[in-house]
Design brief:
single chain, alpha/beta, Lyase, Ornithine Decarboxylase, Chain A, domain 1, TIM Barrel, 2 domains, eight-stranded parallel β-barrel, 12 helices, 21 strands, globular
Length: 445
Amino acid sequence: MLMESPWSQTAIRGEDGAVSVGGCDLRELAGEFGTPLYVLDEQDMRARAAAFRDHFTAAFGRHHAKVDIYYASKAFLSSRVSRWMYDDDLCIDVASGGELELALRGGMPAARIGLHGNNKSDAELRRALEVGVGRIIVDSFTEIEVLDAIAREMGVLAPVLVRVTTGVHAGGHEYIATSHEDQKFGLSLTGGAAFEALLACNDAPGLKLLGIHTHIGSQILSLDAFRESAQRMLRLRAVFTTETGVDLPEVDLGGGYAIRYTPHGEELTARDAAFGIADAVADAVAANGGSWPHLSIEPGRAIAGPAGLTVYRVGVVKHVALEDGGTRQYVAVDGGMSDNMRTITYGAEYTAAIASRLSEAEPTLSRVVGKHCESGDIVVRDVQLPVDVERGDLLAVPSTGAYGRVMASNYNAVMRPAVVSVRDGEATLHIRRDTLEDLFSWDVW
């Protein structure tokens, strides 16, 4: 029986109730790699990457325009994932020197890598120029000055886009909204900072000004914000060209498309995003004049997120009386906030299911919690689970392919989980589980 959304495409439940993904039984994966365990459905993830590539190519192709898709390395990155994105004709955006090296290690050409970040170090900028990244998204006047000096010293031209804060607010939690005025990213349209930054880049002898970039938020469901953002970006582009005579060939409209975390959650599909944004850009070009730019977008979590799940083993089960006279079943698992920070950080909602057996017991209001020394250590806040959940059961939480492993910590000196991908009955290790030897190697004694 196929599992319904938000489970990945190849997730099925067998007659005995056990869940398998990519032809691999989660019980066997847990036995081989331990729990907690991140499982990545390769077929699902690569199909999503291809969907963004194909739908956006088709949507912008109607206007004879080109578009690039940048995979978000901050969602999840391994050398193998970098290779998948290269093979599937995507680019990659990175936000640190470490992400840059992982992308390169997987075979992604530097020319297809964009370097983000609001506080890039001299070493990161120098390394980006050394390997020849395709674009550096500059985030401040300080960075413009520093990058110009480094590029001139190295005798190269640094390809740059200016990150613009458009003032369009979109997405969920305030911590993942990235284009309102009072926050750390970008240069604001208000007061003319973005325009001044474009002038500074154009005048800098060590920089090659490619265009403008914006990112308005994350977990976005409505296309209205993208329409307004496109209007503001294309207006800025037109005004700059009119006043300086300089064309800005590239425009990156970011991304942040919503995915489904629970059975009743909503998502913004690749097709809807592609054709809606293409039409929005067409309207903006018509309103502001000029030629079509070379577009790029950044789907963010929408490629990796739905493709992953986390497998836990149940430890303690408690039934706690509530003030309204009801009860809540607390199901404690062998992970928690150290492998999924999103619940405690953003109030994120997830679902869960027993993955190792069939249960015909009545469902009851449950809360899946971790093993850490924090009362806020919650994995799934509210979910219906059978009343016979017991120690040793495997519990699976879907839609954890993004921001799980990359935000994982060793809080309480726990070992970070392994990451495996599955396809056609084969499991491939991407990142091994931490060991005590790792812990001791960090501890100077």
